[in-house]
Specification:
With about 450 residues, the chain is α+β, with helices and mostly antiparallel strands. It has 3 domains: about 90 residues; about 90 residues, Phosphorylase Kinase, domain 1, CATH 3.30.200; about 190 residues, Orthogonal Bundle (Transferase(Phosphotransferase), domain 1), CATH 1.10.510. The chain is built from 15 helices and 9 strands. Helix 2 runs antiparallel to helix 3. It is flat. One of its GO terms (molecular function) is protein kinase activity. It holds the Pfam family Pkinase. This is Protein kinase domain-containing protein.
């Protein structure tokens, strides 16, 4: 290295050190400013308690209206006009409860920020506020929201194993999934739910994961309900049974699924339950990875009876040999689902190790190469899959139908399908991004005296 290069290298090192010192100085100045401002102040939870009081009042009024509606339905002189009026009042009260609950959540966020930043003793000073339970659930747990106060409709066709009801909050359809818990399992369920939610919260809509909305307990039964968005008819299994995805659509959807798995694996979470019923294709192009049974560890989820699609098992060879679930076993299930979407109705064989025979089916060469790397022992990671040639340019593949044109089941011969797929896979393009949010100092000013 020449003398000039050494000098330039030293100058750059010096510049980097100066930048580090400047940043630390600015951080210490801000710390001192906040410390002086809050030194002689104490947090005020009166806003939170006031909101909780309002919630109780509105809930009491709602219960009274629900009882009035039931009595009117059972009476002989029930007028349609009176029933309509009561239903409108009930809907308004439900919205009022939800608005207060969202205000309560905002207040909890401010107090949680203070606990983490300045006042770790706050939950101990005000145990009645329930700050610790809120924080331990990742901000999902709500003791104010009750399943009985929602206009819930049972969804037995979707699940026979656990209570599952559909409702609507603020014009959004939601599902409430009931899990049976006891004293020993309750904490573990909340821990798993919170870990999943924190992974989603890092990138939110760009995470590729199904959002969790609320976690609530049932007062009458040992159940905990998880509220999630409801996308009727959008699961892969439902779509493939009705109007199968084209290759273009399948690649767009599975790119989103790979993003979801990357988010989970980056948070040290093994999904273990990746199958056709809990992957959703929103608008037939945005892939979303659904949640899983939070009462079970990944080892139990990964070998459940639901881990099959068509005649193809989604359980990886190593899981069948008794090895623990891992990100690699998730990627195997991912590969099987991609294979299932791409082959449509083609016949295929199964090798001795349980993996499908990719070579014998007609398929785009890039997709086939990707699948072979997902079925081998040294599988690709979700990050590597996202960087594969199949997905690098997939975001601008044109849809197979024109705007306003309905998707119809494909009737062509297999060879014609593959020709169309091979033509479409050649025209592609790419997009990406990330965002995070922090609670600003100004948000917590109103919780002080």
């Amino acid at each position: 290295m020449s003398a000039y290069s050494k000098v330039v290298h030293k100058v750059r090192q010096e510049q980097n050190l100066i930048t580090v010192i400047q940043n630390r100085y600015l951080a210490s100045v801000e710390f001192k400013k906040q410390a002086e401002e809050w030194l002689n102040k104490s947090p005020n939870i009166e806003n939170l308690l006031s909101i909780k009081k309002n919630v109780k009042s509105v809930k009491a009024h709602l219960r009274w209206k629900l009882a009035e509606k039931n009595n009117l339905e059972e009476s002989d002189d029930c007028s349609e006009l009176e029933m309509t009026r009561i239903k409108e009042e009930i809907a308004a009260l439900r919205n009022g409860v939800l608005q207060e609950i969202y205000k309560e959540r905002e207040e909890y966020e401010k107090l949680s920020f203070l606990v983490q930043k300045w006042f770790p003793e706050l939950p101990l000073l005000y145990p009645e506020a329930g700050i610790l339970s809120y924080m331990s659930s990742g901000g999902l747990l709500s003791h104010s929201l009750e399943r009985d106060l929602l206009d819930a409709e049972p969804m037995k066709e979707l699940s026979t194993k656990r209570p599952l009801v559909c409702s609507e909050i603020q014009d959004q359809k939601v599902l409430l999934k009931g899990y049976s818990v006891d004293v020993s399992s309750e904490g573990k369920v909340i821990e798993r739910v919170a870990k999943y939610h924190r992974a989603w919260n890092q990138q939110k809509e760009k995470s590729g994961l199904l959002q969790l909305l609320f976690l609530l307990f049932c007062k009458s039964d040992p159940l905990v309900y998880l509220m999630v968005p409801y996308y009727p008819g959008a699961s892969l299994r439902a779509l493939q049974a009705d109007t199968p995805l084209t290759l273009q659509e399948a690649l767009k959807v599975m790119k989103g699924v790979a993003q979801g798995l990357q988010t989970l694996h980056g948070a040290n979470i093994v999904h273990g339950s990746l199958h056709g019923n809990n992957i959703f294709a929103l608008n037939r192009k945005q892939g979303i990875v659904g949640d899983f049974d939070f009462t079970k560890p990944e080892e139990q989820r990964a070998v459940a009876s639901t881990m099959v699609v068509g005649s193809l098992s989604l359980v990886s060879p190593e899981l069948k040999m008794g090895q623990p679930a891992s990100p690699a076993s998730d990627m195997y299930a991912y590969g099987c689902l991609l294979f299932w979407l791409c082959i449509q109705n083609q016949e295929f064989g199964i090798k001795e190790d349980g993996t499908p025979e990719v070579d014998v089916v007609g398929m785009d060469d890039k997709v086939k190469s990707l699948l072979q790397n997902l079925f081998c022992c040294n599988r690709l990671t979700a990050e590597q899959v996202l960087a594969d040639d199949c997905f690098l340019l997939v975001d601008v593949i044109p849809d197979s139908s024109q705007p306003g044109e309905e998707h119809m089941p494909h009737k062509e011969h297999d060879s014609e399908k593959m020709d169309k797929k091979e033509d479409a896979i050649k025209i592609n393009s790419e997009e990406n991004g990330i965002d995070t949010t922090l609670v600003d100092k100004e948000l917590v000013h109103d919780v002080f005296d």
